[in-house]
Design brief:
- The chain has helices at 12-23, 39-44, 52-58, 69-76, 80-83, 96-108, 138-148, 163-190, 196-211, 214-223, 233-249, 257-269, 280-284; strands spanning 5-8, 28-31, 47-48, 61-64, 87-90, 112-119, 131-136, 153-156.
- The model has no long low-confidence stretch (mean pLDDT 96).
- The chain is elongated.
- With 289 residues, the chain is an alpha/beta fold.
- Bound molecules: NADP nicotinamide-adenine-dinucleotide phosphate.
- The site of NADP nicotinamide-adenine-dinucleotide phosphate (NAP) has 21 residues, from helix 1 and helix 4.
Length: 289
C-alpha cells in the first residue's frame, strides 16, 4: 500500500520534499504556519491542512521540515497525542543534542522518532546527488525506507538520534572551511585583477583534484602512524609561512589562513616536523588518543 505522508513546514525545503512525495503518487497532506505556500503543491495533487492537528491526523508518516529546534517543539508539542502510533521524521536541521532531546520528548509521549539531515539543496531533492542521513528509530527507517529514498539516497547512522546531525555538521564544517579558503584565495588574486568568477573556475578544478586524496588522509589519521610522510609538516609550514607573507603583501587579512598556520606551527613546535602533515588532526582532537 502507498504510504500517505504529511509534511509540516513549506519553506523552500519542505516544498521540495512534499513535491517529491506528490510526484511519486503518495497521498500527501501539507501544512505551513503562514498561508499561501501550498498553492503549487495543491495544484499538483497535495491536500492542504488548515491546522497541525488536521495535518498530523491525516497520515501515518509525518515529516517535519521547520526552521530550528524551537520551531519543531512549537509545532509538534500541541499535536503530541495525535503523533502516537505514527512515524515522525524530523528533517529540520538541529544540533545533535537538539535531535537527542527531540527523541527523548518523542519517547516520553510514546512516539516513534527518526531524525534526519538533508545533504542537498531544495532543487536537488529527488535528483541524483541528493543524500539524506538518518538516525534514531531503526523501525521507521526500515519500514519507510522506500518512501524516504524518493528524497535522495537514505543512510542510517544508528539508534542515537544525534548521530545524523553530527555527521551533517561535520560535513558542513568541511564545506564552510573550504569555501572560506576559496574566498581567501579570491582576495589574493583580486589584487592582480583576476575576478572571483575566473578564480572560482580554476579553484573548482584544483580543489576537486585535491579532495580525491581525503580517504587516504583519513586512513593515515585512523592508523595514528604519521611516521612516513607524504608531505612532512616542515614542508607544509614553509608553504604556509610563504602564503601568509604573500597574503599580507597582497593586503589580505589572515582570519582564514592564520589559524591553519597556527595548527601546523604547534605540531612543529612540539617536535613533529618530520612527520606527515595529516598530524595537525591531533592538534584539533588531542583527547581522541
Ligand atoms: N534550504 C536548504 O538548502 C537546506 C538544506 C539542508 C537542510 N535545510 C534545513 O531544512 C530546514 C528548512 O529549511 P528551508 O530552506 O525550508 O527554510 P525556510 O525557507 O526559511 O523555511 C522555514 C520554514 O519553517 C517555518 N517556521 C519557522 N519558524 C516557525 C515556527 N515558529 N512555527 C512554525 N513554522 C515555523 C516557516 O514557516 P513560515 O512560512 O510561516 O515562515 C517555513 O515553513 C532548516 O532546518 C534547514 O536548515 C535546508
Amino acid at each position: 500500500m502507498t504510504t500517505s505522508v504529511t509534511v509540516l513546514g513549506l519553506g523552500a525545503m519542505g516544498r521540495a520534499l512534499a513535491a517529491a512525495f506528490v510526484r511519486a503518487g503518495h497521498p500527501t497532506t501539507v501544512w505551513n504556519r503562514s498561508v499561501g505556500q501550498d498553492a503549487e503543491l495543491v495544484a499538483a495533487g497535495a491536500k492542504s491542512a488548515r491546522t497541525v492537528t488536521e495535518a498530523v491526523a491525516a497520515d501515518d508518516l509525518v515529516v517535519a521540515c521547520l526552521f530550528d529546534h524551537r520551531s519543531v517543539h512549537e509545532v509538534l508539542d500541541p499535536a503530541a497525542d495525535l503523533l502516537v502510533g505514527r512515524a515522525l521524521v524530523n528533517l529540520t536541521s538541529t544540533e545533535p543534542r537538539g535531535s537527542r532531546e527531540l527523541a527523548q520528548w518523542a519517547a516520553s509521549h510514546g512516539i516513534d522518532f527518526l531524525d534526519g539531515a538533508v545533504m542537498a539543496t531544495p532543487p536537488m531533492i529527488g535528483q541524483p546527488g541528493s543524500s539524506l542521513l538518518y538516525s534514531g528509530s531503526r523501525e521507521i527507517f526500515d519500514n519507510h525506507r522506500e518512501t524516504l529514498e524518493l528524497l535522495g539516497t537514505a543512510e542510517y547512522f544508528g539508534e542515537d538520534a544525534g548521530h545524523a546531525a553530527l555527521v551533517d555538521f561535520a560535513l558542513l564544517s568541511g564545506m564552510y572551511v573550504m569555501f572560506a579558503g576559496f574566498y581567501h584565495g579570491g582576495a589574493m588574486v583580486r589584487s592582480i585583477g583576476i575576478s572571483a568568477e575566473e578564480f572560482g573556475k580554476r579553484a573548482a578544478g584544483f580543489l576537486t583534484a585535491m579532495t580525491g586524496s581525503l580517504p587516504i588522509a583519513g586512513a593515515k589519521i585512523d592508523s595514528g602512524d604519521y611516521s612516513i610522510p607524504f608531505q612532512p609538516l616542515t614542508f607544509t609550514k614553509a608553504a604556509l609561512d610563504t602564503i601568509v607573507s604573500a597574503s599580507r603583501n597582497a593586503g589580505v587579512d589572515l582570519d582564514v589562513i592564520g589559524p591553519i598556520k597556527n595548527l601546523v606551527d604547534r605540531q612543529v613546535a612540539d617536535g613533529y616536523g618530520a612527520q606527515s602533515s595529516e598530524r595537525i588532526f591531533e592538534s584539533l582532537s588531542p583527547q581522541a588518543r
